[in-house]
């Protein structure tokens, strides 16, 4: 009996130590990726090269060069670049202030927790929050007009314009930048600053010649992540502007669900273009991230 028990334990230990058993936990994730990422991408690639009757064609890809669609891609890329650039710049400054500004630890933790929530606050709730704040009759708009005589909309600002959307995007881009750049800034070693100071460098020289060059790959990789985050945003734009701001996700939505512009195969081609841009963006992110991690070893 004891011999059988020892044999069963040995078999169980052998099974749990086998590579097949250790990789078994990845099966649900692999199935999820297959069903909701790989197969849909293959489906849209197939649809992008087909007519509504199922015949092979390049017409859908040629249509991407039409002025309306080219302008939509240009508008989406410019909006993503601006919101990512501003988010990366001010997020970096915010992170520096939090880590090196002498703030109490409880305030830093509270700010980080809030950033985790704010980075996921987008879509319709975010749009209505900005309308209530900076709309034509928003709280801040009315207070600035009545208390200080500043009329935002008379000066040319509009929440429903390019810069209004960029400002709205910053609400989730800034906290996202703070969350992903903080580990990199915390990874700056104290010994590097002490070595620079022992050689006579000032604090500004340390940041300009040591810290910022080390942080540059991390900042650029964060910028690529913010760009990808902004490029696929749809609900916020729709809630703020309806269909009057023709970025690529809105055109895609119109082609798949619209009544007038209904053309699913052109929608598949638009989605394929977005996938290509996102793949390039993520590849650049991984390359820059690999360079940034050299300093963390």
TrEMBL record:
Segments forming domain ABC transmembrane type-1: 73-285
SUPFAM superfamilies xrefs: MetI-like (SSF161098)
Keywords (A to Z) from UniProt: Cell membrane, Membrane, Transmembrane, Transmembrane helix, Transport
Subcellular location: Cell membrane
Chief place where the protein resides: membrane
This protein's record includes keyword Membrane: yes
Keyword Transferase in annotation: no
Record's bilayer topology term: Multi-pass membrane protein
Pfam families found in the cross-reference section: BPD_transp_1
Transmembrane segments: 20-45, 79-99, 119-144, 151-172, 206-227, 234-254, 266-288
Gene Ontology BP, a term: transmembrane transport
Name this protein carries in UniProt: ABC transporter permease subunit
């Amino acid at each position: 009996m004891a011999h059988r028990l020892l044999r069963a334990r040995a078999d169980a230990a052998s099974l749990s130590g086998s590579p097949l058993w250790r990789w078994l936990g990845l099966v649900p994730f692999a199935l999820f990726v297959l069903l909701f990422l790989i197969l849909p991408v293959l489906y849209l690639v197939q649809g992008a090269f087909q007519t509504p009757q199922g015949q092979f064609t390049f017409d859908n890809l040629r249509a991407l060069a039409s002025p309306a669609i080219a302008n939509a891609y240009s508008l989406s890329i410019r909006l993503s670049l601006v919101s990512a650039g501003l988010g990366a710049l001010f997020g970096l400054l915010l992170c520096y202030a939090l880590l090196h500004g002498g703030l109490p630890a409880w305030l830093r933790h509270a700010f980080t927790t809030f950033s985790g929530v704010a980075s996921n606050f987008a879509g319709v709730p975010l749009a209505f929050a900005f309308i209530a704040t900076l709309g034509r009759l928003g709280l801040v708009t009315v207070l600035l007009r009545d208390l200080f005589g500043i009329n935002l909309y008379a000066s040319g600002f509009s929440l429903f314009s390019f810069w209004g959307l960029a400002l709205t995007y910053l609400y989730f881009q800034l906290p996202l930048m703070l969350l992903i750049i903080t580990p990199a800034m915390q990874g700056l070693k104290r010994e590097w600053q002490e070595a620079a100071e022992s050689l006579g460098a000032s604090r500004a020289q340390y940041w300009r010649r040591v810290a910022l060059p080390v942080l540059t790959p991390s900042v650029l990789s964060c910028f690529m992540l913010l760009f990808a985050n902004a490029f696929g945003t749809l609900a916020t734009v729709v809630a703020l502007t309806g269909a009057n701001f023709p970025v690529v996700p809105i055109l895609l939505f119109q082609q798949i669900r619209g009544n007038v512009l209904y053309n699913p195969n052109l929608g598949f081609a638009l989605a394929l273009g977005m996938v290509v841009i996102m793949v390039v963006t993520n590849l650049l992110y991984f390359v820059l991230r690999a360079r940034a991690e050299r300093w963390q070893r």
